[in-house]
Write a structure and sequence with these properties.
Helix content: 25-40%
Bound molecules: 2-amino-2-deoxy-6-O-phosphono-alpha-D-glucopyranose
Order of helices and strands: EHEHEEHEHEEHEHEHEH
Shape: globular
Distance between the termini: 17 Å
Strand content: 15-25%
Length: 257
């Protein structure tokens, strides 16, 4: 894993945007995996800036999001399909229909989940997957105990995650949905590059487990240790419980030349 300990959100945004800019320069029809949540916002902000400056175009690109709540009203701003359009996709030049999100509004969500994996495969697979991480180590909505090889499926949210996400629902845990549809860990691991973003001390334990813990379904993000091209972009707060920091700093300095 390549672990970058960066001074602030501007630096995180800039490194994340560099990776996306390089991808689309090399492969204009690349498939981008998008994460919701607050962590990736600095990256999206910087990518939008570079798009406006004519440096990145997505007009041949496609995108898939990681997950969706089950049962939120169509126009709810926290529906991840709305969130990602409002915070990123509608500000750049993806073509109509280039964004696909897991669909919870069908009679047969299970069939929809299988169809989602198939659509990703038919698009040629995800080239670069942006990820956040939950305080309990979940990625997308794969909660502790999830099979490390899972595919896109219906899941339920732990009380911890519902408490964490209540801040987006007027602080009221009862307004946070109980179920979700999420890419599985096996699905996510098939992306050719993973870029996980985390800020703040609240994420420090999850980041320590991710980077230095044993691979375990109890900390789902630890599966990323098995990925050959995984990047972790964090600030000092999220890095504060890591042991091997000297190595990460040295490795990162060499990588950035
Ligand atoms: C949610 C999402 C995850 C996200 C996590 C962290 O539960 N399903 O994809 O990574 O929250 O969110 P945040 O980045 O806001 O801390």
């Amino acid at each position: 894993m390549k672990i970058a300990i960066l001074p602030d959100n501007d630096a995180i945004g800039s490194v994340g945007a560099d990776l996306i800019e390089k991808l689309y320069r090399d492969k204009p029809n690349a498939v981008l995996g998008l994460a919701t949540g607050s962590s990736p916002l600095p990256v999206y902000k910087e990518v939008i800036k570079r798009h406006e400056a004519g440096r990145i175009s997505f007009k041949e690109g496609r995108a898939f999001t990681l997950d969706e709540y089950v049962g939120l009203p169509e126009d709810h701003p926290e529906r991840y399909s709305n969130f990602i359009r409002n915070n990123f996709v509608s500000h750049v030049d993806f073509q109509e229909g280039a964004l696909r999100t897991p669909d919870d509004r069908t009679d047969d969500i299970e069939a929809g989940a299988a169809a989602y994996d198939k659509a990703i495969a038919e698009a040629g697979g995800v080239d670069l997957q942006i990820l956040g991480i939950g305080t309990d180590g979940h990625i997308a909505f794969n909660e502790p105990g999830e099979a490390l090889t899972s595919r896109t499926h219906i899941g339920f949210l732990t009380d911890q995650t519902r408490r964490d996400n209540a801040r987006f629902f007027d602080g009221d845990i009862d307004k946070v949905p109980t179920h979700c549809i999420t890419q599985g860990l096996g699905t996510i691991m098939e992306a050719r590059q993973l870029v996980l973003i985390a800020q703040g001390e609240g994420k420090a334990k999850a980041i320590r487990e991710l980077a230095e813990g044993a691979i375990s379904a109890f900390w789902p993000a630890t599966i990323m240790q098995m990925h050959p091209n995984a990047w972790i972009l964090i600030d000092e707060g999220a890095a504060s419980m890591l042991e091997n920091v000297d190595f990460y700093r040295e490795q990162w300095a060499k990588l950035r030349g």
